């Protein structure tokens, strides 16, 4: 896709133009573009890709590494850490192979490979890609300083004012939230950044939280040599998925040696002679070498100049389905900052929609295609958001859970199936444990949501996403024949269960 976009951008570049001016009083350079993108993570990159493909001149502003959180401190390094963990777990379930993989993982080699995935925290390749599509990169802190205007302050204090003829797109993502505990900064706790970039496994690691970051990092570091204690304030893990998803993941973590405690809150954290001391709400004292707080995210909008245009600094930015900020005719918020779905793939989807909408408005299209599933509507944000949690076992879901569907007033039926009874599951090893659920809208006989838990289910979720996003009727799904023997045969079993019960 990127290669194709690059070709289109180059063939249409004649329609884009950039103008330069210098204020003689301040010697501040002012440069005009069609579009200014604030943030060069994967979302900002995709906004730039789409606007450049439409022939619009585009500037991208980044204060850290081009490629953003996902490339260096989230998606890529975390999955590089987890892949050997999952591969070993799968191998240990296979007679004839299990004995060959009983030794400990080589943490040093795994972290070295992780470092390669992050390009050793250098962004030359991603900078080259931006240059290849014809976007201009400005390094420094970008701040909105008026309507359609972004001032970039470089590391040397140099300021450049970028003005946008058509749109400013905010794609600055989120930052980790730490709890309000006394002197927590003195403890130097881990956030997701430290957890995905650490060079060595701490002997004892306390993980606070029960969501995706907490469960994935607990799974990774337990397997890489840490003794993990997972402290969860709520009743279980992965509370945005069906309850059985978190239950199976918690069960596997305990079997791997992790100490999983639910209904537990942290009241204080100190570091005494290098040792982290955690006190819980029950008064229990837990000692560790490091502590990871995976307790939520906040929008990275506190110092980007929202106050200059009448918006609250540090706030989420509400948008319409074309990703334009409510009440504005030029400001867009794409990705995590709009709080629709804090997922890289969903942000990139939004970027494609936003890019198309910006280009259409720039060309004077009188009426955008904003009907459901239109070219300028991020409809999937409302009904078909997929996610995979790369733990052992994997958990994957798209659309609504049973509780969410019922709360929304749908008349539904949950259809469950034990994945261990699918022929293809046996190929993943002995003792397979997993579960599948589809949520059927009984009025329209389409799927509103699907959840899978078990080894290998991450590769099932796109078929579920197509079924949910496409609103494929149950009667038509009958004719989508799964190959035998694959784990995809669960689709047939779910449909048979729905028909026969």
From TrEMBL:
Residues at which NAD(+) binds: 209-216, 296
Note on cofactor: Binds 1 FAD per subunit.
Any one Pfam family match given in the protein's UniProt record, by short name: Pyr_redox_2
Cofactor (UniProt): FAD
Entry coiled-coil feature ranges: none
Residue stretches of biased makeup (Low complexity): 12-22
Compositional bias of kind Basic residues: 1-11
Pyridine nucleotide-disulphide oxidoreductase dimerisation domain ranges (all copies): 385-491
Residue span(s) of domain FAD/NAD(P)-binding: 33-345
Family membership: Belongs to the class-I pyridine nucleotide-disulfide oxidoreductase family.
Protein name from the UniProt record: Dihydrolipoyl dehydrogenase
Organism: Streptomyces davaonensis (strain DSM 101723 / JCM 4913 / KCC S-0913 / 768)
